[in-house]
Amino acid sequence: MAALLALAAAAPAAAEEIDCVTTEWKLVGANHKVCVNAFDDPEVPCVTCYMSQARTGGISGAVGLAEDPSEFSLDCRQTCAVVLPEKFPKKKKVFSEGTSVLFKDTEVSRFFDEKRKALIYLAVSRKIISGSPKNSISTVVIR
Question: Is-contact 49 74, C-beta < 8 A?
Fold first, then answer.
């Protein structure tokens, strides 16, 4: 049981959908939209990230077979006092979400800039064969 709890604590965060806005109305199937999701950093209480991401509609989008475009924006904020442990990893994947049925996801990694006492969050789209250079970055200065 303890091993399961440790594994759950080490897993990337799950997102909570805040809401969506339609960007293109589709006659058949779901509309194209941009959705805003929130997730808390699993290892840093008091840091919440908000990510907007394009979602593909149409019939394939309605049944979960569409590939979402690599278009997103990321903003992370400190919501209360942050205390980092002494041994804090320099790099860690904190969020991952599939954006197609096979082999494509959006991933958020956290980097720690010890010199400037800042957490840097970088969102990228990953695909096994051809990922995208599109990315978004947000920083949280630890005060």
Answer: yes
